[in-house]
UniProtKB/TrEMBL annotation:
<feature type="domain" description="ABC transporter">
    <location>
        <begin position="6"/>
        <end position="247"/>
    </location>
</feature>
<dbReference type="InterPro" id="IPR027417">
    <property type="entry name" value="P-loop_NTPase"/>
</dbReference>
<keyword id="KW-0813">Transport</keyword>
<dbReference type="InterPro" id="IPR032823">
    <property type="entry name" value="BCA_ABC_TP_C"/>
</dbReference>
<protein>
    <submittedName>
        <fullName>ABC transporter ATP-binding protein</fullName>
    </submittedName>
</protein>
<dbReference type="Pfam" id="PF00005">
    <property type="entry name" value="ABC_tran"/>
</dbReference>
<dbReference type="GO" id="GO:0005524">
    <property type="term" value="F:ATP binding"/>
</dbReference>
<keyword id="KW-0547">Nucleotide-binding</keyword>
<keyword id="KW-0067">ATP-binding</keyword>
<dbReference type="Pfam" id="PF12399">
    <property type="entry name" value="BCA_ABC_TP_C"/>
</dbReference>
<dbReference type="InterPro" id="IPR003593">
    <property type="entry name" value="AAA+_ATPase"/>
</dbReference>
<dbReference type="GO" id="GO:0016887">
    <property type="term" value="F:ATP hydrolysis activity"/>
</dbReference>
<dbReference type="InterPro" id="IPR003439">
    <property type="entry name" value="ABC_transporter-like_ATP-bd"/>
</dbReference>
<dbReference type="GO" id="GO:0005886">
    <property type="term" value="C:plasma membrane"/>
</dbReference>
<dbReference type="InterPro" id="IPR051120">
    <property type="entry name" value="ABC_AA/LPS_Transport"/>
</dbReference>
Amino acid sequence: MSTPVLELRDVHKAFGAARIIQGAELAVARGERHAVIGPNGAGKSTLFNLISGMFTPSSGEIRLAGRRIDGLDANAINRLGLSRSFQITNVFARMSVFENIRIGVMARHGIRFDLLRRAAAMRAVNEQAQALVERVRLAGRRDTLAGDLAYSEQRALEIGMTLSTGAEVILLDEPTAGMSREETAHAVELMRDLTKDKTLLVVEHDMDVVFGLCDRISVLVYGKILATGTPAEIRADRRVQEAYLGEEAA
Ligand SMILES: Nc1ncnc2c1ncn2[C@@H]1O[C@H](COP(=O)(O)OP(=O)(O)OP(=O)(O)O)[C@@H](O)[C@H]1O
């Protein structure tokens, strides 16, 4: 693999005496869709928090496009091209769909609200925000308050917000949690489309989504990556079957 766009080397994270991440190794290639799976409590969300700068590792290295990012705060990491969504819906309920997306687009350009009065800046930002609203298929809900959207629409908006800062590496934490089968299928299609020219790292419990969407999968068990491989390799991996997938993948 050429230089991975995202790389973890021997990453550890302890909360007091609780060693949650214990030497995680991960290499995500540019342009791939990569899932992190593992049992409840394995440390998947903690891993995301470490990568995105919500937590600082106790030790180890995290690199984005070859550059150390461990120890940087979330905003700095975002500016370097990594953006994440959260397990819990995280939209501004009292702002419209369009306004939610526009905040991220403005951040991308470093535009403050007072500068928005300048017509040219406003036009460019509005055009990009509108294009993204359309890409996440919420054009019909453009002026609806985010708090009034259906749950699955809120999750789609959240993906839009994650993309709005223009980041190259997108982290999505359980994007289909709580969705019906139909909503899940729609969300998968959306993710496939929106991440065509991006790198996606996703934590997901729905194995149909993982095996259908992702190029490679890493299995996290007790804070360590037990295996990384293609869906076929992971399905066939005896250790993974024993530790996690069980009968389901046989
Ligand atoms: N800030 C924290 N302080 C102390 N313990 C924490 C903290 N954050 C997470 N943990 C612990 O770390 C362990 C792993 O949690 P984490 O949420 O990362 O797992 P997960 O794999 O995402 O689980 P799930 O699939 O259930 O979401 C849990 O035992 C949790 O209680």
